[in-house]
Amino acid sequence: MVEHEDQQVEQIKQFLREYGIWIGAGVVIGLGSLFGWRAYQGAQVEAAQSRTAVYQQLATQVQDGDVDGAEQMLAELGGSHVVVARLQVAQQAIQAGDLERAASLLQQAQQDSDEPVLRAVATTRLARVYLALGQHDQALQALNQRLPESFKAQVEEVRGDVYLAQGNAAQARQAYQTAVDLGGAQTSPALQMKFENLAGES
């Protein structure tokens, strides 16, 4: 019995002599990975909290009408936060009558967004701003992008508005008709009226 135990002890010693360094290295690597992962998670949480604080401060500035201050803070944001922030600052610029600045912000939001819905919102708003600026070709060009199906009615309505501003009633009526067929009148009460006003136009 004692001899058998001695053999087991000797086998363990032999095993530790041969593989002990690798076991120790594995433990060190494992602990290092664990602490590294925890540090990474902590850094990610801290960065997210910092972005949230900046976003809240920016939202306050937008609400207060401080477009200049809000625009300066955009560089501190990242990801979808910056796109949403640009949309908000652009809306504030529109309300302040600064359409050129709004167009610039919406262009950046359109380019920066990897999210199709946010990109579509930026695109349709940009087209409306171009329309307000009298830049009809740029408005139509902005609308000629691949956007989600749910935005097609809105795109066609804006397209109709641009055609109408160009004096092309026939194309405007056709665009409005497409928008109505796509269910746009449910979300835009003015659409049906626009279409009916052009019903007798040739």
From TrEMBL:
Membrane topology: Single-pass type II membrane protein
Domain of life: Bacteria
Keyword Cell membrane: yes
Subcellular localization(s) per the UniProt record: Cell membrane
Short name of any one Pfam family annotated for the protein: TPR_21
InterPro entries assigned to the protein according to its UniProt record, in alphabetical order: SecYEG/CpoB_TPR (IPR018704), TPR-like_helical_dom_sf (IPR011990), YfgM (IPR026039)
Positions of transmembrane segments: 21-40
KW Chloroplast (keyword) present: no
Residue stretches making up the Ancillary SecYEG translocon subunit/Cell division coordinator CpoB TPR domain: 13-199
Keywords on record: Cell membrane, Chaperone, Membrane, Transmembrane, Transmembrane helix
Family that this chain belongs to: Belongs to the YfgM family.
Name of the molecule in the record: Ancillary SecYEG translocon subunit
Native organism taxonomy: Bacteria, Pseudomonadati, Pseudomonadota, Gammaproteobacteria, Alteromonadales
